[in-house]
Amino acid sequence: MERGAWIVKLDLGCGTHKHPDFYGIDRRPHQDVDLVWDLNEGLPLPDESVEWVMACRFLPYVHDLQAMLTEIYRVSIHKAIVCILVPYAHSFKHSTNPLLRHRFDEHTPRHFTNCFFQPSHGPVSPALSPYENLDELPYDFRLLRMEYFYNESLRAASYESEELEDLHRIQVNVVDEILYHFVVIKEEVTPSELEQLSRHSHMEPHCAHELRSIPSPLDFSEEEPLLSDEGGIRRPKVLRRTFSPRHFPNKTPQLLTIRKRNPS
Fold it and tell me: Which of 18, 72, 76, 162 suits a disulfide with 24, CB 3.0-4.6 Å?
């Protein structure tokens, strides 16, 4: 098929949760899968035939991540959107999983382009210096949005976002998954264009809303009045937790001194 003969929205490794109106590819023949194909063999699509790519919990399993990114870039049109949801690298339950071949965190977007763009809102992707990638990459994915999904126990405890950010900076097992939105760049683009794109509302995996908040019945106050949301649904007000001193110990750990007993 020739370039530009068709333009699709692509759901890679869609499984049983393919997005509506997306073309789903998976190596298992689920009901909603449009094409049964081993994605490690590349994408059986023509150049510049895709305007949207959804990769939900799929990329960590591919054999060659750079080859897969190259294929995604090849089939994408200029300014195609790529949404990626993956396990967060600094979570023990993910880092010890032998099936996950690739790790992702807030530094990852820097490795997806030779011309990094930092949106003015959302989490920051820190600089890589002195270990920057000096090779010319075969693709150019610019960051539009990055979001952390926190460990379920922390979400259920209803911490404030600032408290979760503080915890994330000082310890592991705080962030459970991470979501990125990238834009495919194949022509010249200005920072103002990228900033505008970063503020658009983009599609995301079905599970994203659930991952943002898990209300806990233990945090509901029966004495608090019920609140009404925009849909008129009344729900109990959630009490917010605050950090206790144990979260930020300010004492220097003491060395244990072992005393020898006098021989009797």
Answer: 18
